[in-house]
Amino acid sequence: MAYQLTNGILTVDIAKPGEGYRETRFEWNGLITDITLLDGGHSFCTSENPTQGQGGGMGLCHEFGIKEAIGYQDTKPGEQFPKLGVGLLTRTDEGPYLFYKDYPVQPFKVEIVRESPEEMIFRTLPEECGGYAALLEKKISIDGQRLSIEYSLHNTGQKKLSTEEYCHNFLNINGYSMGPDYRLEFPVNLQPEADDNKTLQELMFDAGKVIWGKIPEREFYFRTGGYDGTREPYLWELSHLPSGAGVREISRLEVSYAAVWGRRYVVSPEIFYRVEAEPGECIKWTRTYEFFSENTK
């Protein structure tokens, strides 16, 4: 644990950039590794591969460009392309970009500002690559039971930045496995789709609810269409019925699409947000999470 935010209600642990996670998929800066609601001692984060030690994502991991990295198609093997929040990656072959591949990386420089015990800023400095460059600022703060992650993306290059951002929320509550004790709810009717129907077999759906009939034995995954999250009270809500603890994302975002991935020890509701910034343009958006228990609703 390198940094911690605390306000007597929540504690939020944040890794030092490049420590604990050094792969090239998720952002290195402002990686939230654990969150605790002090009333009841409820914890909410886990790892992508908790039995394998280091490696893979953990907690709240943000990624830009899961489908296609910025500038990748314009590079040749041996040339660099930018991965927002990570650095300049080197294309290694003629094949397509693969989000799960670990590319050679030249990390971006980052400035870290500790504003108060409840707030800190990670400022990723621009570095030109193929006409692309960006100043990416990420402010993490807590207020009561809420955690906010505010993004400011300033396109300092000559080419338009067009990508998508999401958070791979690696969650469980108090370490309990997924199963009938959990409920995952969305504010809209779900229309689940998957490339492999086997990833849907252990899930049940009731309008906007995802239900587990038993502890899942295999990986599960589905995606569903977008919706106007600015008009909804929350984007998703996960609750653990026996403990009464839960978390909801109350970000005010236009959702391009949503997905859910998980295994027996983790569930990750993912909200995808489209990011478009012309040269010289600065755009901002915020993700907000609210943590609760029976005593704090």
Comma- or semicolon-separated keywords:
47% strand, mainly beta, 0% helix, Beta-galactosidase, Chain A, domain 5, single chain
Explain what this protein looks like in three dimensions.
The protein has 297 residues and is mainly beta. It has one domain: Beta-galactosidase, Chain A, domain 5, CATH 2.70.98.10. Helices cover 0% and strands 47% of the residues. It has no helices and 22 strands. Strands 9-10-11-12-22-19-18-14-16-15 form a 10-stranded antiparallel β-sheet, with no helix packed on it. The protein has a 5-stranded antiparallel β-sheet with strand order 5-13-21-20-17, with no helix packed on it. It has a 4-stranded antiparallel β-sheet with strand order 1-2-3-4, with no helix packed on it. Strand 6 and strand 7 form a beta hairpin.
Describe the protein's topology.
Blueprint: E1 3-6, E2 10-14, E3 32-37, E4 42-43, E5 60-64, E6 80-83, E7 87-90, E8 105-107, E9 110-116, E10 119-124, E11 134-143, E12 146-155, E13 161-169, E14 182-185, E15 203-206, E16 209-212, E17 220-228, E18 236-240, E19 245-249, E20 254-263, E21 266-277, E22 282-292
Antiparallel strand pairs: 1-2, 2-3, 3-4, 5-13, 6-7, 7-8, 9-10, 10-11, 11-12, 12-22, 13-21, 14-16, 14-18, 15-16, 17-20, 18-19, 19-22, 20-21
Organism: Paenibacillus brevis
Protein name: DUF4432 family protein
